[in-house]
Specification:
389 residues, Antithrombin, Chain I, domain 2, Alpha-1-antitrypsin, domain 1, seven-stranded mixed sheet, seven-stranded antiparallel sheet, 8 helices, 19 strands, globular, Corticosteroid-binding globulin, signal, Serpin_sf_2
Amino acid sequence: MLLVPYSCLLWLSTSGFRGIQAENPSHDVNMRSPHRGLAPANVDFAFSLYKHMVASAPGRNIFISPVSISMALAVLSLGAGGSTRTQLLQGLGFNLTETPEVEIHRGFQHLHRLLGESDTSLEMTMGNALFLDRRLELLESFSADTKHYYESEALATDFQDWVGASRQINEHVKNKTQGKIVDLFPELESPASLILVNYVFLKGTWAQPFDLESTSEEDFHVSKTTTVKVPMMFQSSFIKYLNDSVLPCQLVQLDYTGNGTVFFILPDKGEMDTVIAALSRDTIQRWSESLSLGAECGRQAPSRGPPSSLHTAGANRPSLVHAQQVVHKAVLHLEETGVKAAAAPMGGLKLMVRMGRPRSIKFNRPFIITVFDHFTWSSIFLGKFVSPT
């Protein structure tokens, strides 16, 4: 099972922010699978953001939820005006001459509903919350649109009491992510009047579960000079595998029950940057079409958590409606079955594939992980896993 809690927050200054101007688009237009139009822009934004985060934090674990970040920033755009709103939506990858703003929000509305429905794929909880200073008065149109399109909650907060405000936000996120995201809210360095929190909790069950009794410790090679022991899970089954002839990497596809898919990508030694630079819609499509079902194989993967806390903090967005900071945090749990995560570090991934003859593929060094939803073709999570500690 894969458990991935995630949260993103934005906080905004009081300067020029008493009321938020937002258009009030018509809500009665037929929604003909509007999420389909979001997929190309969302996936392009996902890889663009991922590459930026990797470049800004070399040698560190990176784990983000691109679709959640897109959704949070789209919520924020409802409170922006003029060129800031245009720049924000264009920054998310949308061409406003081809896709009207109202269609973007309808698309996110439909996507949010699809990802939250149990019959589409994964067990997922996704939502947004606006924490407002008690003195802040928002325009009704903004409140109505954020609630209509994004089901956002608006919660009054006393930002004069920083300790109490942070406790309130942390408890909200903790409850929404089943206790997996804790202490999200950092100390404020400057005044805030509104904080937007976006959260997602994902629980996916492997189509082929791992054997709990086969978990054992093995080496994970963080670098040429650093090796750590990690719990590794084992499974013997059929698996989709590709030794890429275009890029210097190997990869496997593990599926959830439902529409969820995970790609584990193992770059050749010293080729991590090359593979990351080539990640794109076309690359993912090529991999999907090229993956073949190998013969019986054994695969080992990280044991149950708490795994490493894979997070990035303090990504500045100075152009967003007085937004001072964007912070998000995600935690990845890989488990053999549906048992609750226990106290053990996250490890690597190992495969022994029999394709004519036995072949060993060990994810015991830095690798890449991507989580997609088939039905909506959404990039739910993207990660670069460097160190289990």
